Amino acid sequence: MIDFLRGNVVHRETEYVVLDVRGVGYRVFCSNPFAVQLSQHEEITMYIHYHVREDAHLLFGFTSREEQSLFRTLLDVNGIGPKVAIGVLAGGRPEVIAAAIQQENISFLTKLPGIGRKTAQRMILDLKDKLGGMHSVGNSLVFAGGADVSDASQGSGAWGEAKAALISLGYTEAEADRAGQAIKSKLQGGETVDVVMKLALQALYQQSMR
Questions:
Q1: Contact between 110 and 120 (Cβ < 8 Å)
Q2: DSSP 130
Q3: Phi, psi torsion values for 186, nearest 5 degrees
Q4: Contact between 33 and 42 (Cβ < 8 Å)
């Protein structure tokens, strides 16, 4: 069982990073690969969930023990697999998601990628009493950018929700707006939040490389 890996991030894609650990490259799926800095000189630690299935052995990586713990807790919910759980973590900090579950905030939970109303209800039923160790900031649901989760509904369509998710990941509103402008011509109007998020993260990565 792999608990954590320490190494240099040498490559990123929309769903994973490649972590070089003493000459061995590990493909590690994570909630926001483009938030992880590429560096040949600075090592990072990624906490790992090792997932085995019939056709593949997959590594899911997290920057904190809290993310790792919440990910594993989400897997206890019927209908939530690793790909959905990693998408949920892209929607906010662990304490924000935990607080939404404890407060039975279905409106917020159904805005997370891959989570419908029935799954949100199962999350509340199965996990409400298991998340006491994670606390929200000031007993309220606050994004990293300072906005309350109720703001996630602002904006139009998938972009409004994707922008709120970007802010929850630590991007500033100005950065999110620049990404929105960059991908505007690529949006037809029927994209899911997941698709818009990936396009926005790609745009942010490209902007950071200029």
A1: yes
A2: T
A3: -90, -10
A4: no
Identity of the residue numbered 94: P
pLDDT digits (tens, 9 = 90+) for 60-79: 999 899 999 999 999 999 98
Cα angle: 33, vertex 35, 38; to 5 degrees = 80
CA distance 104 to 24: 43
Nearest CA to 85 among 31, 7, 155? 31
d(CA 33, CA 25): 15
In whole angstroms, give the CA distance from residue 132 to residue 95.
Answer: 10
DSSP SS3 for 195: helix
Residues β-bridged to residue 49: 60
- Give one DSSP letter per residue of 59-122, joined into a string: EEEESSHHHHHHHHHHTTSTT--HHHHHHHHTTS-HHHHHHHHHTT-HHHHTTSTT--HHHHHH
At 101-147, the pLDDT tens digits run 988 988 888 888 889 999 999 999 999 888 865 544 333 333 333 33
